[in-house]
Amino acid sequence: MQNCIYTKDIIKKSKTWLEGFIEKKENKVILYDEEKKIISSKLLKEISQELRIGIYLVYVDNIETMCNDESIKDQSIKRTKIERNEVQKVENNINKMNQNDLIFGNRTEEEILKIIDDLTENK
């Protein structure tokens, strides 16, 4: 959550600014009041210093931090997906090895080669 100020007085020259918080979750931006109660939300792909969320005009204090936090979260999600894929590959390899154990038993490489030689000689 980032600090922000917001107002309903979009058209007025002298605006009454209130303090609040803003949070980005995926493509959704949520505006909170000082007590961290949700005031409004909007689907946005890009965040800028000045936002229009519902009937509110919002200025975000530190937009760089908010964008960096989101990119770190995106990287973490990508890393998790890659790790899951790697785990799946390892599990598949283990399953293949287990199937080979069923075929060849717990034999050494020498024993397996001898069996193959014997089979090819008999043909």
TrEMBL record:
UniProt xrefs under InterPro entries: ZGRF1-like_N
Domain 5'-3' DNA helicase ZGRF1-like N-terminal: 3-64
Designated name of the protein: 5'-3' DNA helicase ZGRF1-like N-terminal domain-containing protein
Organism, scientific name: Anncaliia algerae PRA339
